[in-house]
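Consider this one:
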Amino acid sequence: MMTVLQQKSPSRLQTLIKWLVPLAAIIALAAWIYIAPPGLMGKLDAVGYAVCHRLPSHSIFVGDTQLPLCARCTGEFNAAAIALIFQGFVSRKRSKLSNRGVIAVLVLFFLAFGIDGSNSYLALLKTTYTGAFANIPNLYVTNNITRLFTGSGMGIALAGVLYPMFNQSVWRAPEEKPALAWRQFGLLVGIVLLVDFGILTDSPFILYPAALLSALGVLALLTMVFSIVWIMVMRQDNAFDHPRQLWISAAAGLTMAFILILSIDLFRFNLTHTWTGFPGLSG
């Protein structure tokens, strides 16, 4: 009986972690809030600043207010957030990757993202620097519409792969089914397309929630990745039965996400002295 009780009681390390992780999360969040620009949009800008070039020419505006991420990243992280929420309700603990057909479509989304991004970057280099780049033809004229849609495809692909990987790492008894079958995948793509078309209306009632959702998408992806890393380091793979048991791992992942964002924000701001795009780049 005593042996059973000893096995169930937490170790000193576990008790220490339960105190240190929330404390570290509070410190990291407080430090980031301190250095980020004022206001809600300023805080969202600071999230986008860590992962996006934030060039005004490649971004969507609400009046005179630039969204936290460029058009491509807005589509990417909006779609990723939507896909993670969607799978959380529909797929739950499903841990297998989608079938080959869905994977093939995700690969096409990835290729479209890469082609449109490379094409856009080439145009940016040609307008910013003279020389050999001017002799390289562009495949087509990239604009914020193509950036938004190809970014959304990439966001779906990222979340479609990360979600089942997370389930494989976390749950003691994951469900051995694809996280996204054709029907769920088609519904998800339809939802993301509706959101993208809504963004293109330039309505503030859609753009402000999209700004918030895209920033949350950045945090969600980073938190999931770092939570997996934390679980692996702590040797807690496949040790959880209920989401409420994940709060320490999630807090640790969120802490590392904010530390990464804080570090990039500080480095980039000290380098450029601006919270918008990189000086000297236009297009």
